[in-house]
Design a protein that fits this description.
It contains 1 helix and 28 strands. It is mainly β. It has a single domain, classed as Methylamine Dehydrogenase, Chain H. Strands 1-28-27-26 form a 4-stranded antiparallel β-sheet, with no helix packed on it. This is Extracellular repeat, HAF family.
């Protein structure tokens, strides 16, 4: 999975743990290896062996890539006849998942530890499928639909025998998307509600449950989950267009993750969480710059990076050794916190 994680005992009881944040200056940052053509890739996930996956422009299209622990990058390629691919997640056993695209649409795929690529079955009638996460047991989740839209189509699960199952929608809803799964096979994502809104959702045993929003919340997405059921994501607040980073404890209670100390009311999104309960994502600074950040149930802490005008900056995944990957200043980078 993207972040195989267990929450500490205090948070596991549904209480808010108050931890001391690590100063940003304590984090080190290195650039991950570039593709053979000199271009930087985009990381999406890291496992507990510090192996990173993502994608990059290989010169002949966007290809899924993997960085080993020496930061060297390997092109994972595509299915035969396809032109592009993306790796979205990697588990402890170094099995990666994502998608491969060509003239006939987009297929969900997995790469074995040796790099062998295999297509996963699609839902009937679906032209576009992607695998978004894989847990340590090899259960995979993702999305299939008639388009690549993340707010249309259906959340799906691929079991270890390779079979695909459409996950149930919320009552009265028409679409869903699965973004993460933990070792207990609890799945998170989002789904449309009967009123047309978009709710953060968790599935367990195939049954979807909408997660509560912050006061004034109108849109919610759950983007990551750890093994004790801590979920992270964001809520969009009515009338502001601002996203607030949030976490839901294992009792389903929602709490806002504060922004950077110099911009507590600015936008933020939490994207992943590890066993120690450390969440990573992006927060907006007082100068309205998107800043890679992490949270330990305290205001966001900025991760060091070299600002580049117009560049997108975000931390996207963290493993259980507190190694974080993301993009900063148009570079693929890794932080240790």
């Amino acid at each position: 999975m993207k972040t195989s994680a267990k929450l500490g005992a205090v948070a596991a009881l549904g209480l808010i743990a108050v931890l001391t944040p690590v100063p940003a200056s304590a984090a080190s940052v290195v650039e991950l290896g570039r593709l053979p053509n000199g271009r930087s890739g985009v990381p999406t996930a890291i496992n507990d062996h510090d192996v990173v996956v993502g994608y990059g422009n290989a010169g002949n299209g966007i290809h899924a890539v993997r960085w080993n622990t020496r930061y060297n990058v390997v092109d994972l390629g595509t299915l035969p006849g396809d032109v592009s691919s993306v790796a979205n997640a990697i588990n402890f056993h170094k099995v990666a998942v994502g998608d491969s695209s060509g003239g006939n649409g987009q297929r969900a795929v997995k790469w074995a530890a040796d790099g062998t690529i295999t297509a996963l079955p699609s839902l009937d009638g679906a032209k576009y499928c992607t695998a978004t996460d894989i847990n340590e047991h090899g259960v995979i989740v993702g999305h299939c639909g008639s388009t690549t839209s993340t707010v249309a189509g259906h959340a799906v699960r691929w079991d270890t025998d390779g079979s695909v199952t459409q996950l149930a929608s919320l009552p009265g809803g028409s679409s869903s998307y699965a973004s993460g799964i933990n070792s207990e096979n609890r799945i998170v994502g989002w789904a449309t509600a009967a009123d047309g809104g978009l709710d953060a959702v968790t599935w367990f045993g195939g049954t979807p449950t909408a997660l509560p929003m912050l006061p004034g919340g109108v849109v919610a997405r759950a983007t990551g989950i750890n093994d004790n059921g801590m979920i992270v994501g964001y809520n969009r607040i009515l009338g502001t267009g601002v996203n607030r980073a949030v976490y839901w404890n294992n009792a389903g209670q929602v709490t806002e993750l504060d922004g950077l100390p110099d911009a507590p009311g600015e936008s933020g999104q939490a994207k992943a969480v590890n066993e120690g309960g450390i969440a990573v994502g992006v927060a907006t600074s007082s100068t309205e710059r998107y800043t890679p950040a992490f949270w330990e149930f305290a205001p966001a802490v900025a991760l060091p990076f070299e600002p580049v005008p117009g560049a997108l900056n975000s931390a996207v995944a963290i493993n259980n050794s507190n190694v974080v990957v993301g993009t900063a200043g148009n570079k693929a980078v890794q932080w240790r916190i």
